[in-house]
Write a structure and sequence with these properties.
8-stranded mixed β-sheet, 927 residues, alpha/beta
C-alpha cells in the first residue's frame, strides 16, 4: 500500500523526465512522460528503418523510454515522437531543426571533432527577414558571419549554401552544423573567413514546395532579391573570385539553374548528391537543359574564371546516375569538373562531410588548394597533376555496332607520335554490375594519367544488368579488348602488351579478361572475332572472385574462381582487410589456390582498408604499387618504371599500411625485399624528402619470443618509422596481421646484422631507392623480450650507435629455453654506446633481470624506465601506446642529435620524473 501511494504521488507531481540523454558509448536514451498513451515510437529521417527498433517501453510512472544505439558514425540527427499515431516534438528538448512543413527535435552524438563545438572563436548565425519583390511577400534566410565580423570593417567573400527538398533555410545551421564546421575550419587555418548565406529554397508555403520545386521562380528570386539584399546589407565582395555557391539535392539542382543563367558571377561551384534532374530520362518535346543553356555551355570566356566545379555523390545515392550524367555533360562541353564518388547514400552524414571538404577549397587559387587535414606538403597521388605531357582524347567511340549506349569507350594517348607501338591499359568501372559509368572522375583521371605515362588508355562502358543479364557484361568487356587489338595499328598499340584495371565489379570483369579463355563461351557476338580478348596483365582492386550464393549469377564459369590455373597472365590483387563488401577471406582463398597452381600472382593487403582501396582509399600506397606492376609487365625492358622501391620493380614486394601510416610527418609502410628474405622493413612511404641534408637513421628489431613476425609490435614500429626512421625487423611480412606456422620458425640474433648489412648496402647502390638516403653512422639495436636479448647480443658490433632493450634483461644464467640467445651477464661489457631499458614495472617477468643489468653496466650511459604495464608493454595499443614517445625521444636524441630530447630522461625536471605513471633512473651521464 505504501509503495502504491508513492507511485500515485509521483504521478500527481509529475515524473522527472530528461530527454534525450547521450552516453559516452554513443547510445541515446529518449524519454516521454505520457501515462495515458497506448504506444510511443521514435520517428527519424536520419536513422533509417525504425520499424522494429523504434518502439518505447513504459514504466510504472508512465514514462516511456527507448535506448537506441550506439549511433555510428557520430552525428546530428532529427527525430519526432509518434504518440498513438500522432507525431510531436520532444517536449523536454529545446534543440530543433525546421524542415519543409514540420519541426524536428535534434540531438548531437559527439565523436567527430570537426563538427563538435570547440574552444575556438565562433561566428554568428542570424535569422534574416527581407522583402521579396519577385514573390511579393516577406521571406526568410539564415546568414553566418565569421568570427570578428561584428567588431571589424573587413570585407569578406560570400558563399551561398542551398538546402534540399525536405529541408528549410534553417537546416544547414542545425542538422547540417555548417556554422560549427566553418568555425573549426577557420580557427585551424584550413578555410578562409567567409559570409555564408542560407536562403529558403521553397518559393511556396512550407509543405507545398515538393515536386517541381518551381525552379524558375526560385532562380529569379535568388538572383533579383537574395543576392542584392546580401550585397546591400553585408560587407561582402561582389567579384567572381570571391563568390561561391553550392547546394545539396534540390539545392544542387537549383545551383545548376543559377549558374546556367549567371555563371559569370560564381568562381566556385559545388553540387552535392545532385545534378540536372531528369537528365537521364525522356524529357518530352521541350528543350533539354543542355539546349536551354547551350550558350553558357559553349562560351569559353565563362570557363576562364571558374576556379572550382566540384561534384560529390554517394555510390548508393538514388541520384548517383543523375550526378554521373551531369558531370559527363559538362565535360562534354570542356568544363574542368572534379567529381568524387564516395561511400554512402542520400543523407546528412555525407552532406556535412562534403561541406567539410568543399569549404577549404574556396577563395584560394588552384595552386593553393588543400584538403581538410592536409598541410601544403601533403600528397595525394591520384589527385596530383602528372607531368604535363600533351595527350589527345577521343570520346564516345563505339566498340561494336548496335543501339546500346553502353557499347562506348573513351580513349587517351600521348599526343607525340611514336615509332614504337605503345602498351595499352583497359579501365573497367565498378558499380555492382547494375550501376557505374566510365564518366566517374576516378576512371577518367586514371585514363589521362596513364596516357601521360606513355600508355594508350581506353575507359569502357558495358551493359549493366538492368539492360542485359549476365554474362552480357563479360561479353562486352571482351568485345572492347578485341576492338582494341583490331585497331592496334591505328592507335599505335602493341597487341602483346595490353593490361586491364578494374575496381570491385570492374575487378571481376578485368580478371575475366585475363582468365576466361575463348573456349569458355563468353566472347559474345560483338564482332572482331579474329582477335583475342585476353589481356597480358591485370590489376583488380577489391576483386569479387566468386559470388558464393545460389543465384543465377553464381555460375562458376562466370567467375575467376572457375579458372584456377597457373597458366594465366600476371595478376595483381589489392584488398582491404576490413572490406565488408568483398571479404578479404575470399580474396585470400582465391590467392592461395592460384599460388598452389603456380600462378604469377601478387597481393597487396591494406590493413584496416575498406572497399575503396585502389579506388579512393590508401592511394598513396596502391597507386605507386599498381604503376610499378603495370610497368614491369607491359613496358618494354629498359623503360622507366618509376617504382616506389627497387624491389617493387624486381619482384613480389607488397606494401602494408598500419594505422594509416602513423601520426608522424612521413606516413609509413611495411614492406619486404626479395634480396632480404624473412625480414620486414618499416619505412616512410615517400623517400623523396630524404637525401644528403636529411638522412634516415636505422634501427634493427627483434621480436618477443624470438617470433618470426612483427605482428605484436607493428603499431609501435610503424609509428617510429613515420617519424623518419627505417626499421629492419626480423619477421615475415605475410604474417604481420595474423600468426601462422611461419611465425614459429626459429630466429637468430645474426639476422639483425644481416638486415643491417642489407640496408647499408642499399644505401651504396645507385639502383636502390635508399641510395644516399641512409645515415650509416646512426644505428640502433632494438628488441622486445627474446628480441631484446638478440639486440644485446649484436650490440658489440662497432656499427651499433645505441641499444634499446624492451621488456628484457640478461638472465643470471644462460637461458635453457629453446630459441633464446644463451647469453651470460658478461655480454653487458660489450656495450659501447648509450643504452635504454624500456620496461613494464615490477609485474614484468624480465624486471629483476633488467634491474640487475642496470646495476652492472658501468662503462656507458644507461637509462632505466618503467611503466607498470607488465611484460606485454604497450606496443599493440594505438600507435604503440605510451612506449612510443619514450623510445622516439631516445632515438631522436642519440640518432638525430636532438639534444632537447634528453629532457625526457635527464635531471629532476625531466618529463618522466614529472609523470606519476613512469619511473626513471639514470647512470654514467656527464651532466
Amino acid at each position: 500500500m505504501i509503495a502504491t501511494a508513492h507511485a500515485q504521488d509521483r504521478r500527481q507531481r509529475g515524473a522527472q523526465v530528461s530527454s534525450p540523454e547521450v552516453g559516452e558509448d554513443g547510445k541515446v536514451v529518449f524519454r516521454l512522460l505520457a501515462p495515458e498513451a497506448e504506444s510511443v515510437r521514435l520517428v527519424s529521417p536520419d536513422l533509417g528503418n525504425l520499424e522494429a527498433s523504434g518502439a518505447f517501453d513504459r514504466n510504472d510512472d508512465g514514462v516511456w523510454q527507448l535506448e537506441y544505439g550506439p549511433i555510428e558514425p557520430p552525428r546530428a540527427l532529427r527525430y519526432h515522437f509518434e504518440v498513438d499515431g500522432v507525431r510531436m516534438a520532444d517536449p523536454t528538448n529545446r534543440e530543433t531543426s525546421e524542415a519543409n512543413g514540420t519541426v524536428f527535435s535534434t540531438v548531437f552524438v559527439p565523436g567527430l571533432e570537426w563538427m563538435e563545438l570547440q574552444d575556438v572563436p565562433h561566428g554568428a548565425v542570424s535569422e534574416v527577414t527581407y522583402h521579396s519583390k519577385v514573390l511579393d511577400r516577406p521571406r526568410r534566410m539564415h546568414v553566418y558571419t565569421p568570427p570578428g565580423y561584428g567588431t571589424g570593417d573587413d570585407t569578406y567573400p560570400v558563399f551561398y549554401l542551398l538546402h534540399g527538398a525536405t529541408d528549410s533555410d534553417d537546416s544547414w545551421s542545425t542538422v547540417g552544423r555548417a556554422n560549427v564546421i566553418l568555425d573549426n575550419l577557420i580557427a585551424a587555418g584550413e578555410a578562409e573567413p567567409m559570409v555564408v548565406v542560407m536562403p529558403d529554397g521553397h518559393v511556396d508555403r512550407m509543405g507545398r514546395g515538393r515536386g517541381g520545386f518551381r525552379m524558375e521562380e526560385f532562380v529569379e528570386e535568388f538572383t533579383d532579391d537574395i543576392v542584392p539584399h546580401v550585397r546591400k546589407n553585408y560587407r561582402v565582395h561582389t567579384d567572381r573570385a570571391n563568390t561561391a555557391i553550392a547546394g545539396l539535392s534540390m539545392g544542387g539542382g537549383q545551383t545548376l539553374g543559377i549558374i546556367g543563367r549567371d555563371l559569370a558571377d560564381y568562381g566556385y561551384i559545388g553540387v552535392f548528391s545532385s545534378g540536372i534532374f531528369g537528365i537521364n530520362r525522356d524529357q518530352g518535346d521541350g528543350p533539354s537543359w543542355e539546349e536551354q543553356h547551350l550558350e553558357t555551355l559553349e562560351d569559353p570566356g565563362l570557363k576562364d574564371g571558374l576556379e572550382l566545379f566540384w561534384f560529390a555523390t554517394g555510390r548508393d545515392d538514388f541520384l548517383v546516375e543523375t550526378s554521373r550524367e551531369t558531370v559527363a555533360l559538362f565535360r562534354k562541353h570542356d568544363f574542368e569538373v572534379t567529381y568524387e564518388e564516395t561511400d554512402g547514400s542520400h543523407t546528412w552524414i555525407k552532406w556535412r562531410e562534403y561541406l567539410r571538404e568543399f569549404a577549404p577549397m574556396l577563395f584560394r587559387s588552384k595552386t593553393e588548394t588543400t584538403s581538410v587535414g592536409e598541410g601544403p606538403d601533403a600528397e595525394d597521388d591520384r589527385k596530383a597533376t602528372p607531368a604535363e605531357v600533351p595527350i589527345k582524347i577521343t570520346r564516345d567511340i563505339a566498340y561494336r555496332e548496335g543501339d546500346s549506349r553502353a557499347w562506348r569507350l573513351d580513349l587517351a594517348m600521348p599526343a607525340e607520335e611514336s615509332a614504337e607501338p605503345r602498351p595499352a591499359l583497359v579501365i573497367v568501372h565498378g558499380g555492382g554490375w547494375r550501376g557505374g559509368s566510365r564518366t566517374v572522375d576516378v576512371f577518367q583521371k586514371m585514363m589521362t594519367d596513364y596516357a601521360r605515362k606513355g600508355y594508350v588508355t581506353v575507359n569502357i562502358d558495358y551493359r549493366l544488368t538492368g539492360e542485359a543479364p549476365f554474362p552480357a557484361c563479360i561479353e562486352d568487356v571482351k568485345c572492347a579488348v578485341r576492338w582494341l587489338r583490331a585497331h592496334a595499328d591505328e592507335y599505335g598499340v602493341d597487341p602483346e602488351r595490353i593490361g586491364a584495371y578494374g575496381h570491385s565489379a570492374g575487378a571481376h570483369l578485368a580478371l575475366m579478361l585475363a582468365m576466361a579463355p575463348a573456349s569458355a563461351g563468353l566472347e559474345g557476338d560483338g564482332g572482331w572475332d579474329g582477335h583475342s580478348s585476353r589481356v597480358n596483365a591485370v590489376v583488380g582492386g577489391s576483386p569479387p572472385t566468386e559470388l558464393g550464393r545460389d543465384v543465377p549469377m553464381a555460375k562458376k564459369e562466370w567467375w575467376p574462381i572457375g579458372y584456377i590455373s597457373g597458366d594465366h597472365p600476371p595478376i595483381f590483387l589489392v584488398q582491404g582487410s576490413a572490406d565488408r563488401i568483398v571479404r578479404a577471406e575470399l580474396t585470400e582463398d582465391f590467392l592461395e589456390k592460384m599460388k598452389a597452381e603456380g600462378a604469377d600472382i601478387e597481393y597487396l593487403r591494406i590493413e584496416g582498408g575498406n572497399h575503396g582501396v585502389a579506388y579512393d582509399e590508401a592511394l598513396e600506397v596502391t597507386d605507386p604499387a599498381i604503376e610499378a606492376f603495370l610497368a614491369k609487365h607491359l613496358k618494354k625492358e629498359g623503360s622507366p618504371a618509376q617504382p616506389t622501391s627497387r624491389v617493387a620493380d624486381e619482384g613480389d614486394s607488397p606494401y602494408v599500411v598500419i594505422e594509416d601510416g602513423g601520426t608522424g610527418p612521413y606516413p609509413a609502410v611495411a614492406t619486404e625485399a626479395w634480396t632480404l628474405p624473412g625480414m620486414t622493413i618499416f619505412r616512410p612511404r615517400d623517400l623523396s624528402p630524404f637525401g644528403p641534408d636529411r638522412k634516415l637513421p636505422v634501427a634493427v628489431w627483434g621480436n618477443g619470443a624470438c617470433a618470426n613476425t612483427t605482428q605484436e609490435h607493428k603499431n609501435f614500429l610503424s609509428e617510429l618509422a613515420s617519424n623518419g626512421y627505417v626499421i629492419v625487423a626480423i619477421g615475415l611480412l605475410d604474417e604481420i596481421h595474423e600468426r601462422g606456422e611461419g611465425s614459429r620458425q626459429k630466429t637468430e640474433p645474426e639476422q639483425l646484422l644481416t638486415g643491417l648489412d642489407w640496408i647499408l648496402a642499399e644505401n651504396e647502390s645507385t639502383e636502390s631507392i635508399y641510395f644516399g638516403k641512409v645515415d650509416t653512422a646512426k644505428v640502433a639495436a632494438m628488441g622486445m623480450s627474446c628480441g631484446g636479448l638478440q639486440a644485446i647480443r649484436v650490440s658489440a658490433d662497432p656499427r651499433i650507435t645505441t641499444t634499446v632493450v624492451c621488456n628484457s634483461g640478461v638472465l643470471p644464467e644462460p637461458s635453457p629455453l629453446p630459441g633464446m640467445p644463451p647469453l651470460a651477464k658478461d655480454v653487458l661489457e660489450d656495450f659501447h654506446g648509450p643504452v635504454l631499458y624500456l620496461m613494464g614495472g615490477p609485474s614484468d617477468i624480465a624486471y629483476e633481470n633488467a634491474m640487475d643489468d642496470f646495476s652492472r653496466i658501468s662503462q656507458v650511459p644507461v637509462v632505466m624506465t618503467n611503466l607498470d604495464v607488465g611484460h606485454g608493454g604497450t606496443y599493440a595499443r594505438p600507435h604503440g601506446g605510451e612506449y612510443t614517445p619514450v623510445a622516439l625521444a631516445w632515438l631522436d636524441w642519440h640518432l638525430k642529435g636532438r639534444e632537447e630530447a634528453a629532457g625526457m630522461f635527464l635531471g629532476e625536471d625531466s618529463e618522466l620524473k614529472h609523470d606519476p605513471e613512469w619511473s626513471v633512473e639514470t647512470k654514467n651521464f656527464a651532466r
